[in-house]
Amino acid sequence: MNFTKTLIAASVGALLASGAAAQEKKQLAFVVNAASDFWKLAEAGVNAAQAELPDYELQFRYPAQGTAALQNALMDDLVAAGTDAIMISSADPKNSIDAFNRIAAQVPLFTTDSDAPQSDRIAYLGSSNTAAGIQAGEIAIDAMPDGGKCMGFVGFLGADNAIERIAGFRQAVEGKGIELVDVRGDDVDFARARANVDDVLAANPDIDCMVGFYSYNPPKIYESLQANGKLGEITVIAFDEDPITLGAVREGSFAGTVVQDPYQWGYQGMHLMADYLEGDKSGVPADGLIIVPTKIIDQSNVDAFEAELKERING
User: Is the whole-model pTM more than 0.90?
Assistant: First the structure.
């Protein structure tokens, strides 16, 4: 009887110890700016990091909608639930500084994809969006040696990633006979993104080039051009690696696309935050910028790139 009691006591003790260990795991969160297939690669990177960080619980979170208010509310909820560090792609950095500073006063806060440099975030890990915009301009220059008039399409006009990409594009094409006439925002409303392209086709017959600055914009451009019988007549420069975009590059309907590496944002970001919590701050540079290079994808390298994507997501 005493032996049985001893076994029960030992089992209960082991269960309690296991529960305590689970509760002691530090929690890291990756918060995106809106629901989009673009983030699947970042999520794959977070999952890969989870396998290497068994003492941490990693979360990948989408706000209910792509607004700064809901992003900030989600971060408040995460902090209240005990999250120890957060990495976020800011939907509206200029109007989120107070909220970001409130979070940063409670837990280490990092940014990715769209920075909030005026806030108290510790570091930004992601693309140089200015450099990516310059690469998009280089695609346009190669595709339109005689110049042309471009219309841009983007989600959040006020987000740093949008502002910097647009500025980079304009910088690259300056003096090359290529003009970015305007950029239409859609606030990550896919129906509005498509309608923006339709409206430009109807109202601006002089536009012979379109630039999709967010991942879902090029597929909406493709849909509209195809529906209006304009596919192949208008030069399209894309961003990111949506399957429709890569297919359009492969068939020659798009001149090319500038791709980022969101897988590394998720993977490196989780390790960066874990190291920081452990007291290792060597991964944070003096300027607070950790740049993951972007690259141009065209017909010459699209197949190899797509094979790499599939391996990462399936892995």
Answer: no
Burial class of residue 271 (count of CB atoms within 10 Å of its CB; 0-12, 13-18, 19+)? middle
Rounded-to-integer distance, Cα 238 and Cα 302, Å = 13
Distance of alpha carbon 71 from alpha carbon 88, whole angstroms: 9
Query: What are 61's strand-pairing partners?
Result: 31
Measured CA to CA, the distance from residue 287 to residue 33 in angstroms comes to 24
The C-alpha angle 160, 125, 212, rounded to 5 degrees, equals 45
Helix (H, G, I), strand (E, B) or coil at 282: coil
pLDDT values of the chain reduced to their tens digit, one per residue, 315 residues = 444 444 444 444 444 444 444 458 999 999 999 888 889 999 999 999 999 999 999 999 998 888 889 999 999 999 999 999 999 999 888 889 999 999 999 999 999 998 999 999 999 999 999 999 999 999 999 999 999 999 999 999 988 889 999 999 999 999 999 999 999 999 999 999 999 999 999 999 999 999 999 999 999 999 999 999 999 999 999 999 999 999 999 999 999 999 999 999 999 999 999 999 999 999 999 999 999 999 999 999 999 999 999 888 886
Cα–Cα nearest to 31, from 95, 102, 109: 109
Cα 163–chain centre separation: 15
Q: How far apart are CA 116 and CA 95, in angstroms?
A: 10
Q: Tell me, what amino acid is at 187?
A: D
First to last CA, the chain: 51
Domains, the chain, with CATH or none: 25-127+261-284 (3.40.50.2300), 129-259 (3.40.50.2300)
Query: Quick one: DSSP state of residue 108?
Result: -
Residue 250, Cα to own-chain centre: how many angstroms? 23
Q: Tokens 């971060």 — which residue?
A: 75
Structure tokens that stand for 182 in this block: 């305007």
Residue 196 tokens, joined: 């923006």
